[in-house]
Structures are given as C-alpha cells and as structure tokens.
Specification:
Blueprint: E1 2-5, E2 16-18, E3 23-26, E4 28-43, E5 48-51, E6 62-65, E7 70-72, E8 77-81, H1 84-178, H2 183-279, E9 283-285, E10 290-294, E11 296-298, E12 301-303, E13 322-328, E14 333-337, H3 341-344, E15 352-357, E16 360-372, E17 384-388, E18 401-418, E19 422-425, E20 428-434, E21 440-444, E22 446-451, E23 454-459, E24 466-468
Antiparallel strand pairs: 1-4, 2-3, 3-24, 4-14, 4-18, 5-13, 6-8, 7-10, 8-9, 10-13, 11-12, 14-17, 15-16, 15-18, 16-17, 18-23, 19-20, 20-21, 20-24, 22-23
C-alpha cells in the first residue's frame, strides 16, 4: 500500500485554501509517496530442505520429529521413521534375489543343453523320416508281396499236411482190415489208427486256423500295416518340417526366457540397492547447529499447506516433496517481500526506508531494497529482497513478519489537487478553473503522480488559481 506523506524538514505549507464549498485555491506543498508492505524474515540462501527422496519404499511413518522452530545442535535427530516394514522388504528382496540367481543358473544350463542337443534332435527327426520312407517303400515293393506269398504257402502246406494225414489213415485202415492178426496185434493196430485219426483231426484244425490266419493277414494285417507305414512316412515328413522350425524357435524362446530372468534379477538387484539407500532416509540429523522448521522455505516463500498436518507421530509426510527446513545458526537473515503490482511499480533498487515488527512499532530499524524482480510471480506479485540493520531486541526470527516503509517519490514543492477535481475528455485530463469575472472554464492539464486521493499536477495550473472540485 502507499499513502501521501508530509516529509520532515519541509515547511508545513497549505496546498489550497478553501474559499467556499467546492472552491480550492492552488498552492504548493511537499509531496511524498511512501510504499508500505508486509515482508518476511528469511535466511540468505543457506536453508536446507528435508525431503524423503525415496526410490523404492513409500511407507515412511514418523516415530519422532523435532518440534517446529526447535533449536537443534549438530548431529541431533530431527526426524525418525519406522524401519520395521522396510527391513522386512529388504529381507524379502534379498531372498528373492537368491532364488532368482538359482533360476537363472538353471535356465542357463537348460539353454546350454538345448543348444548342444538341437543338432542331434534335428538329425534324429530327419533319420526317422528317412527310415519311415524306406520302410514304406520296401513294404510296398517287396515285403507285402512276400508276406502274401508266405501266407498262401503256409495255407497250402496246411492243406497238404491234412491230405497226407488223411491218406495215411486211409492206408492204415485198409492194411489193418486185411491182416489176420492176433488179439495183441489188433490192439496195437487199434492204437495206431486212433493216433492217426487224432493227427487227421489236428491237421484239420490246423488248416482251419491257417485259413483264418491267411484271411486275416491278406484282408486286415497287411492292409493295416500298409496304412500304418504310409501314415508314419507322412507324419515323420511333417515332423521333420516342424522340427526344423520349432527347434530354433525353442532355442530362441529359451534365450528370451533367460534374458527375462536376468532382467528381472537386475531389477531386483536395483530395487535392493534403492531400498538400501531408502533405509538411510529413515533418520534425519542436523548437519550443524541451527533451527528446525516444519514446512518449507522455497523461493523466498514460507510454505506449509497440508503437508505439516502429517508431521506428527505415526504421520506420513509426502514422499519426494520437501516437508521441513533446517536453517544453520550461521545463516545471515534478510527480508523477502512479494508486493502487489501497484506497490511494486513504486519501487526501485537501493530505495532506503525503515521497518518495524508488528506489535513493536516503537522500534524502527533501517532497511534497503537490494533486488526487485522485473517480471511478476504467477500470482501477479513481484519478488523483492531487502537488507536490514537488525535491532538487538527483539531479535529477528526466520518466518517473522515485518512492515516495511520505503519513500519511493518526493518533491519539496508541488502543485497537488484532489483527484476528484480532474475529468477526462477528448483533450485529455482537465480541471475547471474559476475566472476573474466569476465564470468558470475547463482547461487541459498535465497530470503527474497519484497518491491516494491526491494527484500531482505538472502543467496547466498555477499557484493562486482557484479550481472547482465536486
């Protein structure tokens, strides 16, 4: 904010004498514009932000944290997190890596065996196809005919054996009928005839079986074997074509599976390394003597937000975002402000002024504007840095608010009129002047700086003139 100010050392001159309501006589007076804004005490670039910059572990639960604004000594614990969960995860990951190593070794051995046996399996498939082809060709050209002839020959031999047995029985029967033999001889002949009859019966049975076997071989077994051999030749030919494609594919698949296992193993090892680093984040210690603050100081702003709500026992602060700030005791302090655009336009580097702490306005201390941003922040404000000569008491604290007063513009003698006395038309800014004859005339004027309800006039008005103001 800004306000007009009667600078000390200037004569207390009246700017205008009111003749009657609405009439103002122009006089000169001192004109000062003071820029006033709130600012914050901040460290000069040495604040250390704390964040849980975890890579693999997310569940960081606070078991203790130093109070906000605590004075801490070097090595003191600022925040500690529960380690039970991450320690279990580390143990599980190490076991998983050990099991993965065994799986990789097994897969490497299997791949090695497949690579070594692939040519043999392919040769075996080719050999099986060649054998099946040769067997089928030999059966078709030679063995089937030979087996058919063998079947016919065995049938004929059975027929011949039956015929021989029948003829022998006939001859024996004829011979024994004409002989005049003793009783003992007749008994022997009877035995021989009985045996021969059994031989005939046996030969008849053998012929019937051989006939059935002949029919089975010719009508069932040989056609079936021909079909089986043809199928075998066909299937082994297909198998060799499949083997020539599938064996290289199986090798490639096993290689990919091995690479996948190795990739998974590498990722597990990286996870273990990340977890081991995350384990070190379970305790934050002060790097030096200083102060510990909840929330963050970034780009000259103190930020708390919802994050500090979790900075309690069993709370879970955000991961990979700053949640606290450490300020070394040796850090010099300065003032950072973000005045609005209207106030920022009044400022320029090296402007000097004073500042006070709210509640202790009786103590002023010198300040000087050292930096002013040339472009606005996202919220439209402009960042400003000021140096200060701090009082001995009260001592400044990081985050404390101060009220800054800077003299941005001043003239020991200027024509200043109420802003409400000005109007704007096609000629620009004008003021209504009272003439000597009592009439009025609206004349153009050149406007200068504006301060609240007053406006500086650079040209168009002279001391002693009377203007009208509503």
């Amino acid at each position: 904010m800004f306000r007009p100010y009667l600078a000390s050392g200037f004569p207390a001159l009246l700017a205008a004498v009111t003749l009657h309501a609405g009439e103002i006589t122009i006089e000169q007076k001192p004109f000062v514009i003071e820029a006033t804004f709130n600012a914050t005490v901040m460290p000069e670039g040495e604040a250390l932000l704390f964040e849980v910059d975890a890579k693999a572990w997310e569940d960081f639960r606070l078991i203790n944290i130093a109070p906000h604004g605590a004075r801490v000594t070097k090595g003191g614990v600022l925040a500690g997190f529960d380690t039970l969960g991450i320690d279990r995860k580390l143990e599980d990951t190490r076991r998983s890596i050990a099991a993965g190593s065994l799986a990789v070794a097994h897969a490497e051995q299997e791949l090695k065996s497949l690579v070594e046996t692939a040519p043999h399996r392919l040769a075996a498939a080719r050999r099986a196809a060649q054998i099946a082809k040769e067997e089928h060709a030999y059966f078709t050209a030679t063995r089937r005919k030979a087996q058919e002839e063998t079947a016919h020959q065995r049938l004929e031999r059975s027929k011949q054996q039956l015929s021989n047995q029948q003829e022998e029985l006939r001859q024996l029967s004829k011979m024994y009928q004409t002989d005049d033999l003793t009783d003992a001889t007749e008994e022997t002949e009877e035995i021989i005839l009985t045996r021969q009859k059994d031989s005939v019966i046996s030969a008849e049975f053998a012929l019937r079986m051989e006939t059935l076997n002949n029919q089975y071989n010719l009508k069932v077994a040989l056609p079936r074997e021909a079909l089986t051999l043809a199928d075998s030749e066909r299937d082994t030919a297909i198998a060799i074509g499949s083997a020539e494609k599938e064996i290289p594919r199986s090798l490639e698949r096993r290689k990919l599976e091995l690479e996948s296992l190795k990739t998974g193993q590498a990722r597990e090892q990286q996870t273990l390394a990340d977890l081991e680093l995350d384990r070190k984040l379970c305790e934050f210690k002060a790097p030096a003597d200083g102060w510990f603050y909840h929330g963050t100081i970034q780009n000259g702003r103190w930020t708390t937000g919802d994050a500090i709500k979790n900075l309690v026992k069993n709370g879970r602060p955000p991961v990979r975002r700053p949640f606290a700030t450490f300020i070394p005791a040796s850090a010099p302090l300065a003032i950072v402000a973000f005045p609005a655009e209207t106030t920022a336009r009044l400022l320029a580097p090296d402007l000097a002024g004073t500042a006070t702490f709210p509640g202790r306005e009786d103590i002023e201390f010198p300040v000087k504007l050292t930096q002013l941003a040339g472009i606005p922040e996202p919220d439209g404000s402009y960042r400003a840095h000021l140096s200060a000569t701090w009082p001995a008491d009260p001592k400044p604290a990081v985050g404390a608010t101060v009220k800054v007063h800077l003299i941005s513009y001043q003239k020991p003698a200027a024509i200043v009129i109420p802003t409400k006395a000005l109007a704007h038309d096609s000629r620009g800014w004008t003021a209504e002047i009272k003439l000597a004859d009592g009439k009025t005339e609206r004349r153009p004027i050149k406007r200068g700086r504006v301060s609240g309800d007053d406006t500086e006039i650079l040209d168009g008005l002279e001391t002693g003139q009377v203007i009208l103001a509503p």
